[in-house]
């Protein structure tokens, strides 16, 4: 079952990396967001959801580390858990900074709109479209990586299921082997008992034959040599 644990650890690590990339992509979207506040709120909700998934996977990896049989494996996994936690804290810091930057940018744009009117609005629209296109390209690239990693996770899960089925088959075969061993042992005892009984029968036959011959010799002696 240690192999199954290794597969589970690998799946946890792959999903942690996937969620980390998705969080980074959303933080980049927040940096590029120029409003309105409703768009920023929606992005923040997505970030919170990804952080929850990331935190859950890190906890699973930490639990797997505590269940390791070897102390060396346990320490290696705990170090990975610590690194993932530090990375998550770094992402949270970047998230707060991106929110602050975005809110300042939105406030500045709103103030500039009030002062400059329609020209700034057109400039803002053009800038927003360019930023949206750039953000969309970055997000698509990161999501492509995420999809590849999801496929790898699915393959790892299938491999783990195959491994579990193989382990179950081996256990069943082991039980059958134990049953056969018991039957063979019983047969060996019966053969040994039969061999001993056969030896006893031969000995009895030999003694009976000897007694018979002795009786015959005695009778012959009395008939032929009565004076002896």
UniProtKB/TrEMBL annotation:
The chain crosses the membrane at residues 203-220. It is found in: Endoplasmic reticulum membrane. InterPro entries: Sec20 (IPR005606), Sec20_C (IPR056173). Its main location: endoplasmic reticulum. It is a single-pass type IV membrane protein. Keywords: Coiled coil, Endoplasmic reticulum, ER-Golgi transport, Membrane, Transmembrane, Transmembrane helix, Transport. Residues 37-71 form a coiled coil. One of its GO terms (biological process) is retrograde vesicle-mediated transport, Golgi to endoplasmic reticulum. Pfam families: Sec20 (PF03908). GO terms for cellular component: endoplasmic reticulum membrane; SNARE complex. GO terms for molecular function: SNAP receptor activity. Residues 134-224 form the Sec20 C-terminal domain. CDD domains: SNARE_SEC20. Belongs to the SEC20 family. This is BCL2 interacting protein 1. It comes from Pipistrellus kuhlii (Kuhl's pipistrelle).
């Amino acid at each position: 079952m240690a192999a199954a644990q290794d597969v589970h650890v690998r799946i946890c690590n792959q999903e942690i990396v996937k969620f980390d990339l998705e969080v980074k992509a959303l933080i980049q979207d927040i940096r590029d967001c120029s409003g309105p506040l409703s768009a920023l709120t929606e992005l923040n909700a997505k970030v919170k959801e990804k952080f929850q998934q990331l935190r859950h996977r890190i906890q699973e990896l930490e639990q797997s580390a505590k269940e390791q049989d070897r102390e060396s494996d346990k320490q290696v996994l705990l170090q990975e858990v610590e690194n993932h936690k530090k990375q998550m804290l770094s992402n949270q810091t970047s998230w707060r900074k991106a929110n602050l930057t975005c809110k300042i940018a939105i406030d500045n744009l709103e103030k500039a709109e009030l002062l400059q009117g329609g020209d700034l609005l057109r400039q803002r629209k053009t800038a927003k479209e360019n930023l949206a296109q750039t953000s969309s390209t970055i997000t698509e690239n990161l999501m492509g990586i995420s999809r590849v990693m999801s496929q790898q996770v699915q393959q790892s899960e299938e491999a783990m299921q195959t491994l579990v089925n193989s382990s179950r088959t081996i256990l069943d075969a082991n039980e059958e082997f134990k049953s056969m061993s018991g039957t063979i042992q019983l047969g060996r005892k019966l053969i040994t008992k039969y061999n001993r009984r056969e030896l006893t029968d031969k000995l009895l036959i030999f003694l009976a034959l000897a007694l018979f011959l002795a009786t015959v010799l005695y009778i012959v002696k009395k008939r032929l040599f009565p004076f002896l």
